[in-house]
Design a protein that fits this description.
This protein has 387 residues and is mainly beta. It has 3 helices and 26 strands.
Length: 387
C-alpha cells in the first residue's frame, strides 16, 4: 500500500499502518497515525525498511524508533516544518540507499528538523542522516564496484557522476553522532558516493558527537553549510570526494577537533582507484570560528594526498591555520592542484604547518592574504539555524 499524503489524511483517526520489511535486520515500518495533527502530541512512529513511498506531512511530529531505511525505487518525502524525534541509540538513523530518494524541502521559516527525543538532549543521542549513491569513490577499483558504509553496512559508490539521490534543503540535524562501536560513529550528515545530480542546500549539523558533515567520495555539490558545536571534525572528506562546497560556516564549542579534515583517500582502506585519483574539492566562502589561539588545534588539516582549492577564507581563533601532512599532499601543492586565495587570519599563531617535505611556505601557499571575508553567515542563517 502506498503511504502518501492522501492516505495519511484519510486515516487520520487513529489508524495503524504496518509496511513490510525487506530482507535485512531492521524492524517493520509502523506509522501510528492518531488524532488530527497538533492535538496529538505523540505524532507518528516510524522506523524499519520502507517498501512503499512515504510522505511525512507538515504539522506533524514523528518519532523515529529504529533505523529508517529507504531502499532502491522508494521515495521519502518530508514536507516543510516536519520534526523527527529520534529515540536514543546509535542504531537509530535515516539511511537513503543507492537508488532510493529523499525529497526533504523545508524553508527558511519552516525548516525540517531531525533531533533527539530526550527531554535533556545531548550530542550522540542518536545516529544521523545517511545518503548513499552511485558516484565514484577511490576505495574500490572502479566501474560499478562498491564499498560498504561503516554504519548500517550499506553499499555505496559506482560510476554515475550525476547520480541523483534527491533534495535536502533547509534541513537541521541535532544531537547526532551516536557510536556504533569504538571505531564507527555516526555523523550529522554522511554522504557516501553521492552524485552531483543531488541537491544539498541550507543544511545545519548542530551539537553532534562526531563529524558534522562528511563526504565519502562522490561528486555532490553542497551550499550554505552550517556546523555548530561538532565534537569531532566539523567538515570531513575522504575516498576521492570532488564536489564543490559553497558558503560554509563552522563554529567550534568547548569540545571539538578540526574545522576541516580533508583526506585524499581512506587510509584504513587504501587508494584502490585505477586510474588513481584523489579527493579534490573546491571550497568557496568559508568561515571557521575557533575558541582562540591559546586553545590549540588547527582549523584545517589536509592529508593523505588530498587536493583542494580554497577561495575566500576567514579563519579566526586557532593555534594553527592550515596543517598539511604527507608527501603526496605536498605533491598536489607543488603541482598547483591545491591552493588558497583571498584569506584572512585573525588570532592565529601559525598560519601554515608544512609536514609534507614539499618546498613551499606560507608566502607561496597563500595568495591575497587579508582579503578573505568568509561565508557572510548572517546573510543566510536567519530562521532555520540554531546558534
Amino acid at each position: 500500500m502506498k503511504t502518501n499524503k492522501f492516505l495519511l489524511g484519510l486515516f487520520a483517526a487513529a489508524t495503524l499502518f504496518v509496511v513490510g520489511c525487506a530482507a535485512d535486520d531492521t524492524a517493520d515500518v509502523t506509522i501510528n497515525q492518531g488524532g488530527d495533527g497538533p492535538s496529538d502530541p505523540s505524532g507518528t512512529e516510524i522506523g524499519g525498511t520502507l517498501n512503499a513511498d512515504l510522505t511525512l506531512t507538515t504539522g506533524t511530529d514523528y518519532d523515529l524508533t529504529s533505523g529508517l531505511i529507504v531502499p532502491e525505487g522508494i521515495t521519502l518525502t518530508i514536507e516543510p516544518g516536519v520534526v523527527v524525534r529520534a529515540t536514543t541509540g546509535s542504531d537509530v538513523y535515516v539511511a537513503i540507499q543507492q537508488g532510493g530518494v529523499i525529497n526533504a524541502e523545508g524553508t527558511s521559516s519552516n525548516p525540517i528538523v531531525f533531533t533527539s527525543n530526550s527531554s535533556t538532549p545531548n550530542p550522540g543521542d542518536w545516529g544521523g542522516l545517511i545518503v548513499l549513491g552511485r558516484a565514484p569513490i577511490n576505495s574500490v577499483v572502479g566501474g560499478d564496484a562498491t564499498s560498504t558504509s561503516e554504519i548500517g553496512g550499506l553499499p555505496y559508490g559506482g560510476s554515475i557522476v550525476n547520480d541523483n539521490s534527491g533534495i535536502i534543503r533547509y534541513v537541521r540535524v541535532e544531537y547526532s553522532g551516536g557510536a556504533a562501536d569504538a571505531a564507527s560513529e555516526n555523523n550529522g550528515f554522511s554522504f557516501y558516493g553521492v552524485g552531483n545530480g543531488t541537491t544539498i542546500d541550507y543544511i545545519q549539523a548542530f551539537e553532534g558527537a562526531d563529524d558534522g558533515v562528511e563526504f565519502f567520495g562522490g561528486t555532490v555539490n553542497a551550499s550554505h553549510i552550517s556546523v555548530v558545536g561538532a565534537q569531532d571534525d566539523s567538515v570531513d572528506w575522504t575516498e576521492g570526494f570532488t564536489g564543490t562546497l559553497t558558503d560554509v560556516y563552522i563554529e567550534h564549542r568547548q569540545s571539538h577537533d578540526k574545522g576541516i579534515e580533508g583526506d585524499g583517500f581512506n587510509t584504513d582502506i587504501g587508494n584502490n582507484s585505477d586510474p588513481v585519483f584523489w579527493s579534490a574539492p573546491t571550497i568557496n566562502n568559508i568561515t571557521i570560528d575557533g575558541l582562540g589561539s591559546s586553545n590549540g588545534n588547527e582549523a584545517i588539516r589536509l592529508r593523505a594526498g588530498t587536493r583542494a582549492t580554497f577561495n575566500n577564507v576567514l579563519i579566526q581563533g586557532f593555534e594553527e591555520g592550515y596543517d598539511l601532512d604527507d608527501e603526496e599532499t605536498g605533491t598536489g601543492v607543488l603541482a598547483n592542484e591545491t591552493s588558497v586565495s583571498d584569506i584572512t587570519f585573525d588570532d592565529v599563531m601559525l598560519t601554515l604547518k608544512n609536514d609534507t617535505n614539499g618546498a613551499f611556505d606560507e608566502n607561496s601557499f597563500f595568495s591575497g592574504v587579508g582579503n578573505g571575508t568568509g561565508a557572510d553567515y548572517n546573510s543566510w542563517n536567519s530562521g532555520w539555524t540554531r546558534n
